[in-house]
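Appendix B. One record, verbatim.
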Amino acid sequence: MRNKSTNMPEINIYIVIIGITSLVLLYYNLYIGSVFFVIFLYSVFHNWRVTNIRRKEWTKYIQDLSLNIDETTKKAIINLPIPLCILEFDGRISWYNNKFYNMVGEEDLLDTNIEDTIKNISLRKVLNENKEMYTDVEYGDRQYTVVYNVIKKDQEEHAKYLMILYWIDKTDYLKLEKAYNEEKNVMALIQIDGYDEVLKSADEDKRPLINVEVEKILTSLETSTEGALRRTSKDKFFLVMNRRELKKLEAGKFAILDTIRHIDYGNNLPVTISMGIGIDGDTVNENIKLASGALDLALGRGGDQAVIRTKDKFTFYGGKSKAVEKKTKVKSRLIGHALREVILESSHVYIMGHKYPDMDAMGAAVGIYDICKSCNKPANIVLNSANESIEMFAKRLKECDYYKNIFVSHDEAIDNCGKNTLVVVVDTHRPNFTECEKLLDISEKVVVIDHHRRGVEFINDTVLLFHEIYVSSTCEMVTELVQYMEGDVKINKLTAEGLLAGISLDTKNFAFKTGVRTFEAASYLRKVGADTIEVKKLFNSDVKDFITKAEIIQSTKIINNRICLAYSETELENINVVIAQAADELLNVKDVEASFVLGHKNDKVFISARSLGQINVHVLMEKLGGGGHIDIAGAQLKDVSLKQAYEMVHDIIEEYLEEED
């Protein structure tokens, strides 16, 4: 900064003017010119003297000010209210203030390496000069944010770099934040699964005892969580608690699910509950909405589980029980009536299953095709190519005049699909699993018919949703729609065989997930012409498949004497079918409760999982992006080698066994 008093250009101008005037006067009048010239010389001398004095005074003022600033800076740094230290670039401490000394609590710190004193700090990230970086460090029982600042110190021979570390103690802030988060309200919606069916399964005099026991257990939950519980209807409860108590429930894997399940007053069906929990919403109302969505998901996955939902993720606990079969067929009648109305209001119908369709998807699709035909509406099944699991059935459909031009490609369906086109999705509810996902975006009328346990991804904005996870197969659901739809729906013999084949496939020849309604549906299909011998032919395998299955069984590893893990290195076109059959076979091994078989084709690895019911394979496969049911599930992995996929499945099984222990 320059002082204006030491540099006054207007004075210099006046002096110059006097000098010029004196010279002019000397030319015309020597006496007067001499007087002015003397004045000019005096002005020059006086200006020089005053300027010099003022410059010395200003220099002294700046020097004194610099000394004061240096002294103030030193005192400020020494008395800085946060710990501070200066390091050489090799990590040696060259200076520190009192706060840092008090923080570390050691007497001699100079020339010691900071990484020897504070073990969990690393200086490798600090490479660029004049750049601040931040890191979190825990020292003692305190949490610090360390601010790194690299400075350059010029010396005569070369530049020297130093690091200044500011230690900002954020322990109290973190404790406050933790306390705040732990005190946040958590909304939980609780529902007793199949309440009416469970009560009916017990003697009439024992039913009040079941009700009282459930309420007693839930009241103890209210007490233990210091929450507030209210019963909103005969089978629904509302619980408010804080997040700290929710963490305790999570740590105990929601043991209340097991406690409720042990209620036994002669009831043939187990008592189970589903819990939907909403957290981290911006408002109480948003938490309630999250809890409601979580409860819907828990029920859609079969109940007997707790689902915690935030804005961006779900967490699942429980899910050990099979869904209870509902005896009533009222819903099938209602859905059948609604489906007929939707079909009649549509210009065209496109039906599709999941990618790499099996007989359950294809049989259900053909069943819907016959329903559309009975309604005199044009319909097609969207399929680019038939894999080996449905190849024989697809060939028989193409050879029959009744199903003329039944199949259309993806491109043809996309070109002809409009807003008023009805799209019926069978045997899946995940948009990215469908045969042609783009159709879901084009059409404004989508119907979903599925029996798989609900995953996080779900087709939204459907005009009709028929999702029953207790049903054996989608073919069983479609068969009931055919039976109870208004008006006479006549299905072709080949359609009946396709539906029966789908039921046979998903029930493993009526051994798994088979209820009374499953046999009733099969009986109806047999009555309308389904030939069981023809159905069996649809599942015939060639010699290569038998050899591959033998190789799979030979590669089997038994984990914990309970779970079989096997793989096939042979690449077959229908490898997904072969590994599914092998997984079924491995359940015949004594003491084995679940089996996992892997196979690969092109750039995909297929995983087939089976269980006798004690182990929920759906939950395990869900961790790999798959899903299914508690006893039948699967997954597909892309851009992963067979060896990598094998290790992933092995790790998931080990993790499951550790959690169970």
